[in-house]
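Input structure tokens:
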């Protein structure tokens, strides 16, 4: 993977992760790095799922693929937030 590819993945991950956080109500106790990580994973998984169900790749914005990615990011952010909340309750 090239440097440009890595930077692109980080930027897309940040956007997808942020949109996933916005889709959730309330505040999520996770930092920007975790949000970007969740966004990158959600973007990759969302693309794979969209391709596996036959969503065609287009020259413009693939809206259905984007919905998959944001939905997965919201699930990922919620899971990480729940894990962090539970972990913080046991440590003093």
């Amino acid at each position: 993977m090239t440097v440009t590819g890595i930077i692109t993945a980080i930027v897309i991950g940040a956007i997808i992760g942020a949109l996933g956080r916005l889709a959730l109500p309330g505040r999520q106790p996770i930092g920007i790095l975790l949000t970007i990580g969740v966004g990158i994973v959600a973007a990759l998984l969302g693309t794979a799922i969209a391709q596996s169900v036959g969503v065609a790749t287009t020259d413009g914005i693939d809206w259905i693929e984007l919905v998959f990615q944001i939905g997965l990011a919201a699930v990922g952010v919620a899971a990480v937030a729940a894990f962090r909340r539970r972990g913080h309750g046991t440590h003093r």
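Helices lie at 3-22, 32-52, 63-90. Residues 63-90 form the longest helix (28 residues).
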